[in-house]
Amino acid sequence: MGTNLALVSLDDLELLVAKQSIKNEVWKAEEAAKYLKCSQSQIKKQATEGIVPGVKVGTEWRFSSIALFEYVSKSKVNK
């Protein structure tokens, strides 16, 4: 019988563990801006341009905490 082996990097494992410890919440622009340490106008502009993951509901922007965590994680890797 064969053995299934999965090869993953330490970075992938750290990301998986961190992702599991984050609550999946929907944030308003104010909360998302605090998390990203930027202004509300900046995060709204970046969401409009498709840089930061977000969804516009009516006139307000909403952001997934998990999606923002992944965005930040990928940004750190690309630096």
UniProtKB/TrEMBL annotation:
Pfam families: HTH_17. Residues 29-74 form the Helix-turn-helix domain. It comes from the Bacteria. One of its GO terms (molecular function) is DNA binding. This is Excisionase. It comes from Vagococcus fluvialis. The lineage of its organism: Bacteria, Bacillati, Bacillota, Bacilli, Lactobacillales.
